[in-house]
Amino acid sequence: MNTPTAGQSGRPEAETYELRLRGHLDSRWAARLAVPDLTRESDGTTTLVAVGLDQAALHGLLQRIRDLGLTLISVSRAPAASDDASK
Amino acid sequence: MSGSLIATKLFVPKLRAGVIDRGRLNERLQRGGTARLTLVSAPAGFGKTTAVVAWLQSRPPAGAVAWLSLDGTDNQPTVFWAHVIAAFQDAVARVGAPPLDIPEPSEQPDNVVPGAIVNALAALPGSLELVLDDYHVIEQPEVHSGVTFLLEHLPPNIHVVMTTRADPPLPLARLRAQRELVEIRAADLRFTADEITAYLNDVTGLGLSAADVAALGDRTEGWIAALQLAALSMEGREDVAGFIAEFAGTDRYVFDYLVEEVLQRQPETVREFLLETCFLDRLSGPLCDAVTGRSGSRETLDVLYRANLFLVPLDERCEWYRYHHLFADVLETQLDAAARDRLRALRRRASDWYEVRGERTEAVRHALAAEDFERAAELIELAIFGMQRMRQELTIRTWMGTLPDAAVRRRPVLGIGLAGVLASVGEFEGLEERLREVERGFAAITAAGDTMPEGIAVADLAQLPRVPGLVELYRAALSQVRGDMAAGVRHAERVLELASTDDHLARAAAASLLGIAYWSEGKLELARARWTEGRDGLMRAGHVADTLGASIALGDINLALGRLREAAHIFEYALEVSAAQRSPVLRGTADIHTGLALVLREQNDLEAARRHLLASAELGEGARLPQNPYRWRVADALLRQDEGDLDGARAVIETAVRMYAADMFPNVRPVAATRARILVAQGRLDEAARWRRDAGVGPDDAPSFMREYEHITLARLLLAEDLKGGGGTGARALPLLRRLLEAAQVGRRNGSIIELSILLALASRPAGIEEALKHLARALSLAAPEGYVRTFVDEGPSMEALLKAVVKRQIDAEYANRLLAAFGPAQPKPRMHPELIEALSERELDVLRLLGSDLGGPEIARELAISENTMRTHTKNIYEKLGVNSRRAAVSRAEELQLMTRRKA
């Protein structure tokens, strides 16, 4: 099910987050994790950019990552510019 | 929830063939048995559950095992505890022990259930393991706090094991420091090189080279779920080395890669079956047939199980299975866009299947997941009233988080059910808007006549006629919460007009709200009538525990009305109602004992009052409303005062002040004022004067019922200050007392009239006895039929003198004589001689009293008409029981224990 978590910018306190995961993920996983897109990096990791997440939505995403057995390497708040770029 | 689904959650999983022995983990887990909690905390697919099951099977048979596989529905405390209790009962039944005496959680407040469980477990003879599998699904803080309580109060014979993907918000650091926590984490669960070799070569018989094993170990990092998939992918493959090389060479997420590999190697039918059923939390042949639209699912499940395709049996008969959670989650990721669309249709079928079988919670869950909100709304509407009765409000609120508001708006019956849920959990924000919407929907239905109007739907037609009454009921509650009593009364009265005569619950709730409103305004007769209706209606609606709350209100109101006997009768009846219930003791029973103690104390039956206070205390937390702790202490303080324990009375009333807990009832007797009264009675006028400043009461205030008790307290203080030292005239309190009396007479509050008349008698005494006796005669005539004693006797010698004058003038001599007999030394209370190993018999007490006189032994024997031998035996027994060896010591010890003053029975 495509959970309407991400992609709802305009929420108060919404931020854009960048998450790095161990391993390369197929593009199908973007829908599963409800993020607009993902990038496979040359170092064997995958970067997700999640847009318009407040804290509760971020934790929901982290929980899905946990439940899918994925290894989380880093989470960071993306610079505001990337927020605009992704719209 | 049906029995079958609960049973699958309580099933202790069995190890399947092909699990390697991991002695090092068994040892760690066995050591954990001495701590309170063993936490198996690691990501998905690390073999947490298997490790626990393997340990349970490897150890020598010892004690019972209560197993609970948690899922999202356990986030409602009522549901969680019901399942925990079911797991315990299941466990004790398996070892042949009698069922534990634990109350039904839906009939108890959530916070007392863990305490009841602890008490019941303490009685368990053997040891017991409670396994909470997948604890990470628990998110509700209420559940966590209950589990924390359980862990902190666990009897030593009980041990808890949790498996979880995330460390739970429990006091782990504290448990760790106390060495009450054993942890098994990802690093411990990862398969070592030896274990991988054992698994791949010995168990699956793949016969891999050391290098291949090492490569797989590196790539999977000892992650058993991945190793298991890798083994499946290699089974029957010719070029195993090639597979390993390719697998090791890819950067792809291990599990995703392997699931895809495994899927590709399955026959078409199996692959389809897996993808079409991966969303189901539990699978059975019939359910899968319904979802896939094909027959033969039962056989397919058998095939999958035998093929080791991550299927976990949930019962002995292999009727229900579930997929390994991680496997199912990654399978779902394999679905493409078209398949995901199709998934919605499959979920709808699952919802239908459960609905037909009466499994409404499951039906709702699948309908919500299918995003079939119309259907979900319909199902919730059909379930909501029953779930409210079972106190599952949190589950409903979770559903509402997913259900779009539009689906609720077109359903007035669902809307009113939801309003009830919100009101019962104290969420009043947005309630008024919701009620208006429900009203609009209902009006549209009425206007449309026989057809359902466009855009409106009703599934539970039986509830439709209740809607207008319930709208007004929740408005009444909302008004009271906002402090608008007048509006509360208006709406509650509308409920009684609108609700049908057999809607007992709505009518009773409205009557109780009216009862509260009238009570607050001092219209006690009206309040009494409404509360009686409320209590009886609640009884008819089957809400027996709630009738106790109504009885407490009724008792208090009758006391204010000066109807001591009716108050006693109400409390006694409530105790009968409570006693007629099967265990557990109804919540509120302790409060009823406290209320009855206060009545008995007023009637000067101090021993019976003390007995009821003890009964109240012994019933335990589950039988108490939140107000009982302070109310009990108020009663205890007053009783101690009567018993002559002045310091004790002061200490206890201080605690009562601190423990005050507000409820919906008007706070007509603030504890601080009762404290001030005790201080005045003990002559501590300076301390009492501080209360006066804090309470902000003055002698010129206009009388109001809500402040009447405080004003009378102030009058007592003024009177005491005035008469202090014997020089005053009492006149300072008179104007206030007169005004208060007038107000009490207008409100026909006999309880207040009696007390005020007594104070007026005392205050007017210095000016002349005639006026004093006039007031006292009024008090006596109202108090005599009800058996008041303490209100008179507590006033001490000046009242005693006035009563003697009453007797002399033959005004109400009989009653006055009875009151006069109650003056004098306080009766001993049973608790005063706890040091006494064995109570003295009546006869021994007789002997003891005469030992205190100046009579010699033979004279005492003659006095009691007993032989000198018998007399000596009694004396010997008395000495033994009192732990003394002389007559003088016996008498002084008896005086200490207040045994000398006891009246003959």
TrEMBL record, chain A:
- The name this protein carries in UniProt is Uncharacterized protein
Q: Which organism is it from?
A: Devosia oryzisoli
UniProtKB/TrEMBL annotation, chain B:
Please indicate if the UniProt record lists Transcription as a keyword: yes
Which BP terms from GO are recorded? regulation of DNA-templated transcription
Q: Where is the HTH luxR-type domain?
A: 833-898
What GO molecular function terms would the record report? DNA binding
Q: Does the keyword Transcription regulation apply?
A: yes
Q: Which InterPro entries match?
A: P-loop_NTPase, Sig_transdc_resp-reg_C-effctor, TPR-like_helical_dom_sf, TPR_MalT, Tscrpt_reg_LuxR_C, WH-like_DNA-bd_sf, WHD_MalT
What keywords sit in the KW lines? Answer: DNA-binding, Transcription, Transcription regulation
For this protein, the record's Pfam families field holds: GerE, TPR_MalT, WHD_MalT
Tell me which PANTHER family the record gives: DNA-BINDING TRANSCRIPTIONAL ACTIVATOR DEVR_DOSR
User: What is this protein's record name?
Assistant: Helix-turn-helix transcriptional regulator
> Which organism does this sequence originate in?
Devosia oryzisoli
